[in-house]
Specification:
This protein is mainly α. 92% of the residues lie in helices and 0% in strands. The protein has helices at 5-77, 85-152.
């Protein structure tokens, strides 16, 4: 019994379309998984950036405390009391430290916001890519069905 070439072509077209459909569906799932992974990486980077800025602020405050101590010791060693100009110097050191700390905190907030946005955008892009791949998979299935119907005449 000979197999009809048209039946073979129809079967091959349908099988090819089904395989393409399944491949695009799997690719869509993988795109979403990759996007989620990348978003989680951005969220971890956000935490690391916050820790780095916290350490930077702590270091700044420690340096400032050492500077104030040095200023007090030098003032006391010179026999001057901590009033008036010497006290203004110490106060200016504290104010400058607070301004620098605020700058570090603002930079930290901006960096964290950027990482939050990056994670959200990565997830959105992953969903969009997956959606496009799913549409391609359906188009492939429909296209193979149309070709098979054309072959059957």
């Amino acid at each position: 019994m000979a197999i009809d070439p048209i039946s073979l072509a129809v079967g091959g077209t349908l099988i090819g379309g089904t395989m393409s459909f399944k491949g695009k569906q799997a690719e869509a799932k993988q795109a979403q998984k990759i996007a989620e992974y990348n978003a989680q990486v951005a969220e971890q980077e956000k935490k690391v950036l916050a820790e780095v800025k916290r350490d930077e602020e702590a270091s700044l405050r420690g340096q400032s405390a050492r500077l104030v101590s040095t200023q007090r010791v030098m003032t006391a060693a010179s026999g001057v009391q901590m009033k008036g100009s010497p006290m203004d110097v110490v106060a200016n050191t504290y104010f400058a430290t607070e301004m620098d700390a605020l700058t570090i905190q603002q930079a930290s907030s901006r960096e964290q916001a950027m990482k939050t946005q990056e994670a959200a955008m990565t997830r959105l892009e992953g969903r969009a890519k997956a959606s496009g791949l799913k549409y391609q998979s359906y188009a492939s299935l429909i296209n193979s069905g149309t070709k098979a119907a054309t072959l059957m005449g």
